[in-house]
């Protein structure tokens, strides 16, 4: 195996396992920033050793073991300055008893799950809402600062500063590494749901890399959502988010061809949609609608996904109902991205000209200036209106803005289709 291919393996393992490693170290050290630093040390060790020594049989366990050893070394060094030798030994043994089990035996219960504890630490009220989400995406989602910046439609520098300040604030406040008591959950659940949602979205449509989907991120987000729903059975929005993730996940097998090329929703083989996940999603959606309150933003998105899941064929889709649900979502959680999605729905319900009119109004939105889906949507609507020259330019612009290889290939292919129609005309 070449050095480059080894590095790709290491990067892949790190993306999948980094959150569990950081969670285990945070439970040992009670310091999220230090946990990430020592986990990164283990990653550096892999980058130095594996190209020459070969990839271990269990790469994740190797990283976890090295990271734990680094953490224990730190504890020993710290205790040497605080205790006698006998006290040091006792303290280390106590810490060892508290270490999470091996990586392959990760816990799924809500009280013993390091990932859930880490998420609540990242979403502590001592941090701003923006800082909570950015830090959790970094530690739990394994996203780079550039990927997080794209998720928030802001600059990489701003995100880097936000994460550094967040880790410092947690350390200074000595935030405990624990799931909060029941009476404190409600104050933090909104941020936790936002983080789970962002992690899931990054897995569903990766902002960068060679693959359009990162299923492991989706699975982890869904697992955490299910745990949270079991712990907070009366929180409608928790069930709403779980319903959304269950239904969206049902399409995973149909969203890409054997060669990894993306398949858009209206072109997917719906026989490949996972009916068990759809049924689970419908059940969660029923729990999300609390009497007298209706659905929240996540529940509304789940209801939209449910409309697609109920349609046996693309032409059976109830676009009028979806448009009404998007109108409600725009009132509850207004944002340029919601409006862009609404433009797509309006085009399906009332024709591409109606969608393009709204999409054109969004062209001046600062948040969407470098957002590749705006020119992608405009390109699609222009193509449907027979304005192929304009559509080709929009698809090419969208391709230049995305960092995802598969999405770029799809957009350039659509641009070429426009060019062929122009040539044929």
TrEMBL record:
UniProt KW DNA-binding keyword: yes
Keywords: DNA-binding, Sigma factor, Transcription, Transcription regulation
A Pfam family it matches: DUF6596
Superkingdom per UniProt: Bacteria
RNA polymerase sigma factor 70 region 4 type domain mapped to chain residues: 119-170
Residues annotated as domain DUF6596: 188-289
InterPro entries to which the protein is assigned, alphabetical: DUF6596, RNA_pol_sigma-70_dom, RNA_pol_sigma70_ECF_CS, RNA_pol_sigma70_r2, RNA_pol_sigma70_r4_t2, RNA_pol_sigma_r2, RNA_pol_sigma_r3/r4-like, WH-like_DNA-bd_sf
Every RNA polymerase sigma-70 region domain range: 20-78
Coiled coil location: none
This protein's record includes keyword Ribonucleoprotein: no
Protein family per UniProt: Belongs to the sigma-70 factor family. ECF subfamily.
Protein name listed in UniProt: RNA polymerase sigma factor
Originating species: Massilia soli
Lineage: Bacteria, Pseudomonadati, Pseudomonadota, Betaproteobacteria, Burkholderiales
């Amino acid at each position: 195996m070449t050095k480059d291919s080894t590095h790709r393996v290491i990067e892949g393992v790190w993306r999948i396992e980094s959150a569990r490693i950081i969670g285990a170290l945070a439970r040992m050290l009670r310091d999220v920033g230090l946990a990430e630093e020592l986990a990164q040390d283990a990653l550096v060790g892999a980058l130095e050793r594996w190209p020459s020594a070969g990839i271990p049989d269990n790469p994740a366990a190797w990283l976890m073991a090295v990271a734990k050893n680094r953490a224990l070394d730190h504890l020993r060094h710290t205790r040497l300055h605080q205790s006698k030798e006998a006290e040091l030994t006792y303290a280390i043994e106590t810490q060892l008893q508290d270490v999470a089990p091996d990586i392959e035996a990760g816990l799924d219960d809500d009280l013993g799950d390091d990932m859930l504890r880490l998420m609540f630490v990242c979403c502590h009220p001592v941090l701003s809402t923006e800082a909570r989400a950015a830090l959790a995406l970094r530690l739990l989602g394994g996203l780079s600062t550039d990927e997080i910046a794209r998720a928030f439609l802001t600059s990489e520098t701003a995100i880097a500063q936000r994460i550094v300040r967040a880790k410092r604030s947690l350390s200074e406040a000595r935030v405990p590494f624990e799931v909060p008591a029941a009476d404190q959950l409600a104050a933090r659940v909104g941020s936790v749901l936002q983080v789970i949602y962002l992690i899931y979205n990054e897995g569903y449509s990766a902002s960068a890399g060679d693959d359009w989907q990162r299923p492991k991120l989706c699975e982890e987000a869904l697992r955490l959502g299910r745990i949270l729903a079991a712990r907070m059975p009366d929180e409608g929005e928790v069930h709403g988010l779980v319903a959304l993730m269950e239904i969206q996940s049902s399409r995973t097998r149909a969203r890409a061809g054997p060669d990894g090329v993306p398949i858009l929703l209206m072109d997917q083989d719906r026989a490949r949609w996972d009916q068990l996940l759809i049924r689970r999603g419908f059940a969660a959606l029923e729990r999300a609608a609390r009497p007298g309150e209706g659905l929240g933003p996540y529940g509304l998105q789940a209801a939209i996904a449910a409309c697609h899941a109920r349609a046996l064929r693309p032409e059976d889709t109830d676009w009028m109902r979806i448009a009404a649900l998007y109108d409600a979502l725009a009132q509850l959680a207004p944002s340029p991205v919601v409006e862009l999605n609404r433009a797509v729905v309006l085009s399906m319900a009332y024709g591409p000209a109606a969608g393009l009119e709204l999409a054109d109004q969004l062209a001046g939105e600062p948040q969407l200036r470098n957002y590749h889906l705006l020119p992608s949507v405009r390109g699609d609507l222009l193509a449907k209106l027979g304005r192929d020259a304009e559509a080709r330019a929009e698809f090419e612009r969208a391709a230049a803005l995305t960092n995802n290889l598969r999405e770029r290939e799809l957009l350039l292919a659509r641009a070429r289709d426009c060019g062929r129609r122009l040539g044929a005309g």
